[in-house]
Each structure stands twice: as structure tokens, then as C-alpha cells.
Amino acid sequence: MRLVIVTGLSGAGKSTALKMLEDARYFCVDNLPIPLMSKFVSLMAGMQGEDVQNAAIGIDARSGRDLRELEKVLEQLGEAGYEFEILFLDADDRVLVKRYKESRRSHPLAMYGRVDEGIHREREKMKFLKERADYIIDTSHLLTRELKKEINRIFVDNGKFSNMVISVLSFGFKYGIPDDADLVFDVRFLPNPYYIDELRPHTGMDEDVFQYVMDCQAAADFADKLEDMMKFLIPNYAKEGKTSLVIGIGCTGGKHRSVTLARVLYDRLQETREYGIRLEHRDIGKDALLKKQ
């Protein structure tokens, strides 16, 4: 039996991850009282080979004072010969606050106070679990389908996992540099398809624009050098414990050159299959929207 303990910060996606595991035929229990964990694991182990092959237990800050006993319970499970894995869902504080404001729900540790104070208290309470985690997924920039892809890769396909999720983000400088970008590259030195009448209405997602940009030797050389740099930097960032890396690639409007180079970098990083990779084009449609106004 494969046993997964799903935990993390409130609002980071724990309930969503449990539902995804349930869809993958895991027997899932959320917010199980910690004193009952050992009995539950023993029961599931006894049912192995019948209808249940794998199980997942959701644990979070709602466990209250019992959370202090969890470390002891985990040690007892290990001593009893039960193997388990810990999946920890995390996200930036700003993202968590935004999610709570949008959902209009109260944070479990800040019922009548500020959400950010509740998040701070929760981080302290959950710190020991994050340190013990086998997998840490930062959901700050992940769409639901991207989280599902990661869950399936780890717990269904048994794929190799790295705690880092990389976001390749194209943008337009005239709309501002992304606040969350860790690395920013400027490709405005490349020939601009905007000045070609037949290419102007298209984007870097269209083959004619893509070929126009990449037919430039400078673009090909830049793509090669950028790939080499990323393949050097990313493992070193991962070694230092970084779980989220946003690579921003910008041109003037975020429609042609940046989209093209972001696509190229994304495809090349995908080939490594060592990290979670996502691609986003922040400003690809903004010019069209502005013209309609």
C-alpha cells in the first residue's frame, strides 16, 4: 500500500490535491483526528489487495493541539514498519491572502483577525512537516490542471520529482515588469514583427511570426545561450531549496518576440523532465483589448 500524508498551508490546494488522489483511486480521508491515524493505517494495510491499494490522509492546522502529537505518531508508524510519504502544498503569502479574499472564507487560525497573521502562525505550526516533506509543491503560479499533472506524475506515473516549479513568462515592458519575476531577459534587440504589416496582427503562437523571429541568427544564438544558462542556474537554485522560479522574457508589447522565445525555452526545458514547467503569456492579447476600448 502506498500511503500519502497530504498537508500544507490553508489555501495552498490541499483539498484539491486530495480530490485528485481520490480520482486516481486512492482512499482519501481529510482532517482525520491525529490520535486515530495509527488505527486507520493499520486498517488500510489489512485491506490491501482488496478494494483499496493506496491511501491518503489530509492533515492541516485544523487539527489544533493534536498537531503537536503528529511527529510522535509519524515516528511510531515508521517503527511499526509502515512506509509513508509527505506531500506539502505551499504558496506565497500574497497569493494565499488573495485567495482568501476572493473566497471570502476565514482563515482557520485568524477567525476574527487578519489573514496574514493567521498565515504566519500557520507557517510556524506546520514548519516541522515541511522539513520532513518528501514533496513540496508551490502552487503560487499553478493552474488546477498543472497541479493535477504534477500529482499524477508523482503518485500515479511514479515519475521523478523535483520540489521546484518553473514558470516561463512572456510579457510586454510597456505593461510593466512582472512583480514575481526572479529572472528577467529583454529580447527587444531582435527584429520586431510588429513592423511587418502581414505579421502585426499575429502573435508568437502563430507559425509565421515564430519563424520570422527564429530565422534571425541572433534569436537562435540567444536561445542557445539562455538554455545553457538555465541548465546551469536551475539545479543550483534547487540545491539551495528554492521551490518556485519565474523566468520573465520581455519585448515591447509581449505579443511577438517574447512569446516566441518563451515557447522555445519552455520546449527545451521540458525535455529534461526533471522539474515542473509551465508556460504563460501575460500580455499576448492586451494590444487587441486596448484597440477595442
Number of helices, counting only DSSP H or I runs of 4 residues or more: 10
Spatially, the strands of the biggest sheet line up as: 2-3-1-4-5
Query: What is the structural class?
Result: alpha/beta
Do you know the CATH architecture of the largest domain?
Answer: 3-Layer(aba) Sandwich
Low-confidence stretches: none
Question: Regarding CATH, which class of the largest domain?
Answer: Alpha Beta
Mean pLDDT: 88
- The percentage helix is 40-55%
Q: How do the helices and strands follow one another from N- to C-terminus?
A: EHEHEHEHHEHEEHHEHEH
Instruction: Give the C-alpha Rg.
Output: 22 Å
CATH topology of the largest domain: Rossmann fold
Number of domains: 2
CATH superfamily of the largest domain: P-loop containing nucleotide triphosphate hydrolases
Multimerization state: single chain
Biggest sheet character? 5 strands, parallel
Strand content: 15-25%
Overall strand count: 9
The separation of the N and C termini measures: 58 Å
Main features:
single chain; 293 residues; alpha/beta; Rossmann fold; 43% helix; 18% strand; elongated
Description:
The protein has 293 residues and is of the alpha/beta class. It folds into two domains: 2-155, P-loop containing nucleotide triphosphate hydrolases (Rossmann fold), CATH 3.40.50; 165-292, no CATH class. It is 43% helix and 18% strand. It contains ten helices and nine strands. It has helices spanning 14-23, 37-46, 67-79, 93-103, 115-132, 144-155, 207-214, 217-239, 257-270, 286-292; strands at residues 2-8, 26-30, 54-58, 85-90, 135-138, 165-172, 183-186, 244-251, 276-281. It has a five-stranded parallel β-sheet with strand order 2-3-1-4-5, sandwiched between helices. Strands 7-8-6-9 form a four-stranded parallel β-sheet, covered by helices on one side. Strand 2 (26-30), helix 2 (37-46) and strand 3 form a beta-alpha-beta unit. Helix 1 (14-23) packs across helix 6 (144-155) and helix 4 (93-103) packs across helix 5. It starts with a strand and ends with a helix. The model has no long low-confidence stretch (mean pLDDT 88). This is UPF0042 nucleotide-binding protein. Residues 1-158 form the RapZ-like N-terminal domain.
